[in-house]
């Protein structure tokens, strides 16, 4: 009788674990989705707010900046005072800010709301992985982290699809209002089913100096990168760009010095002395800079040059995101039997091949039929690496540091995405302008028109060049066909360079993971580390 009762309790506890995972998965999905979902709503917002794309830029930047800056802070607060408490507070904050954003009547309210929403998003994202690690044990932990990795992969790749559908059928406020009912469900499930973790730093002083220095350093670096992204022709050594980046680096160096010297630091800097942990953050950075940053340029290719709508683009990008759903749970099971190190390294190699495949097929007549093989390989990489990275990132980390380890992985993933978007954009613009400079003069048009159009194309950049070349007025010119052909070839030249660059970034991650990660073989009874 007692045995039956015990088994029934274990079964109930097991069911509660998976419901708790659902709550954490919803929070993670919403937090990451809102990094990208706004992109497809911008054209509608331009009309509704009667403004320009430039003025709307801070709707994107506010979330990116605040999200990255607060990831480590929210992680530490969770480690100190209980991860469930901070995760739950972050959920509530995110839901309230989402509702405010949906009702926003002007850009100032929306920009502020996006910043507040990002604080909630960073708390949900940074603590979900650590909560899963503390709510699950044994083989279930690997499977649960694999499923959470699937959620991360799907959320980062499904922005165009979900955003496109909501905007097309309900207008832009829907991308914020949709968070409210799902957020409320996640709050209820979290309260009932998620187990709290110990308050490891309950009696310790909060490291305010560390929090301020880390936040200021990350803010300065990312803001400098955003400035460079918005002004690609500004020199890297200009005060407006390098001044911010250099200030950020200096602040982070000071942060490291302070953390070494104080008694209860925000972050244990000894984590960075472990090659295995360095390998995990390198992989996170490569994933962001290679895969996630490339999605921005792939979306522009499909919408601006091939001509798909936002919804049509999102549907086709399921070719990438669906693999996260398929592979996540499978990877969680396989990682208990096979080397996670070589699974990660091999998956990144597959992604590198995928980018090369895309680079080789890009031409003025490229269609989805030619892109999908490379996109599938990208999706397999994303679907494999994210779940494995979650599991590997938690290995060897003390329970009281799990929140911070999770936060750092997300910081480097986000930093990689931001730097990747800027770096790939500069590569694309350089190759785009190089082709224009060498071939636009071959078009038979008046020299005054040539000079003006060349200047307009360079100023607009690769994303908007298509709109200029194929405008109704210009299409009626006798030289239109030759001019349009040069512009499309220039864009393809830049896009191929972007794909090749992403291949190199992911390949570096592949080599780095093979060198730095430990080859950990696990069974139910023993754990053996091999270098």
TrEMBL record:
Task: Write down the membrane topology.
Answer: Multi-pass membrane protein
Q: Name one GO cellular component term.
A: plasma membrane
> Which terms in the Gene Ontology molecular function aspect does this entry carry?
transmembrane transporter activity
Chief subcellular location equals membrane
**Which parts pass through the membrane?**
21-44, 56-74, 86-104, 116-136, 143-166, 172-194, 206-227, 233-257, 277-294, 314-335, 342-362, 497-517
Per the database record, which ranges form the Major facilitator superfamily (MFS) profile domain? 20-521
Domain of life of the organism in this record?
Bacteria
Keyword field contains Cell division: no
Q: Where in the cell is it found?
A: Cell membrane
Q: Which Pfam families match?
A: MFS_1
UniProt keyword annotations, A-Z: Cell membrane, Membrane, Transmembrane, Transmembrane helix, Transport
Which family, according to the similarity comment? Belongs to the major facilitator superfamily. EmrB family.
Q: What is this protein called?
A: Major facilitator superfamily permease
The scientific name of the source species is Paucilactobacillus suebicus DSM 5007 = KCTC 3549
Taxonomic path: Bacteria, Bacillati, Bacillota, Bacilli, Lactobacillales
């Amino acid at each position: 009788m007692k045995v039956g009762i015990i088994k029934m309790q274990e079964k109930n506890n097991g069911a509660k674990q998976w419901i708790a995972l659902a709550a954490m998965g919803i929070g993670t999905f919403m937090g990451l989705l809102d990094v990208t979902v706004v992109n497809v709503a911008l054209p509608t917002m331009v009309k509704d707010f009667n403004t320009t794309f430039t003025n709307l830029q801070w709707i994107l930047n506010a979330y990116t900046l605040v999200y990255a800056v607060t990831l480590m802070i929210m992680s530490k607060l969770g480690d100190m005072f209980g991860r469930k408490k901070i995760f739950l507070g972050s959920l509530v904050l995110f839901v309230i800010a989402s509702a405010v954003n949906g009702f926003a009547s002007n850009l100032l309210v929306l920009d502020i709301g996006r910043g507040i929403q990002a604080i909630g998003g960073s708390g949900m994202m940074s603590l979900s992985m650590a909560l899963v690690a503390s709510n699950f044990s044994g083989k279930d932990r690997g499977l649960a982290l694999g499923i959470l990795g699937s959620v991360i992969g799907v959320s980062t790749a499904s922005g165009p699809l979900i955003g496109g559908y909501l905007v097309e059928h309900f207008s832009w406020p829907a991308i914020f209002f949709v968070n409210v009912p799902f957020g409320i469900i996640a709050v209820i499930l979290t309260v009932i089913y998620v187990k709290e973790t110990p308050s490891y730093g309950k009696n310790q002083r909060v490291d305010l100096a560390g929090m301020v220095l880390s936040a200021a350093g990350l803010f300065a670096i990312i803001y400098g990168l955003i400035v460079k992204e918005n002004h690609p022709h500004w020199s890297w050594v200009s005060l407006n760009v390098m001044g911010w980046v250099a200030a950020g680096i200096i602040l982070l160096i000071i942060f490291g010095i302070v953390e070494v010297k104080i008694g209860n630091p925000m972050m244990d800097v000894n984590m960075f002395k472990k090659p295995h942990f360095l390998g995990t953050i390198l992989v996170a950075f490569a994933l962001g800079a290679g895969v996630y940053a490339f999605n921005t340029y792939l979306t522009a290719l499909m919408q601006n040059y091939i001509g798909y709508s936002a919804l049509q683009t999102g549907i086709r990008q399921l070719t990438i995101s669906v693999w996260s759903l398929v592979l996540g749970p499978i990877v969680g099971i396989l990682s208990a039997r096979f080397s996670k190190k070589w699974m990660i390294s091999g998956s990144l190699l597959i992604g590198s091949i995928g980018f090369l495949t895309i680079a080789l097929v890009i031409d003025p007549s490229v269609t989805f039929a030619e892109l999908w093989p490379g996109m599938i390989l990208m999706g397999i990489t994303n679907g494999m690496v994210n779940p494995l990275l979650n599991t590997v990132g938690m290995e060897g980390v003390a329970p009281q540091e799990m929140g911070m380890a999770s936060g750092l992985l997300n910081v480097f993933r986000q930093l990689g995405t931001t730097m990747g978007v800027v770096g790939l954009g500069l590569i694309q613009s350089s190759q785009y302008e190089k082709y224009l400079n060498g071939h636009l003069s071959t078009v038979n048009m008046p020299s005054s028109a040539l000079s003006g159009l060349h200047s307009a194309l360079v100023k607009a950049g690769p994303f908007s060049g298509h709109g200029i070349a194929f405008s109704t007025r210009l299409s009626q010119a006798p030289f239109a066909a030759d001019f349009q052909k040069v512009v499309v070839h220039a864009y393809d030249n830049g896009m191929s360079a972007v794909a090749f660059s992403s291949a190199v970034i992911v390949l570096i991650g592949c080599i780095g993971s093979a060198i730095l990660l430990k080859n950990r073989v696990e069974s139910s009874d023993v754990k053996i580390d091999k270098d």
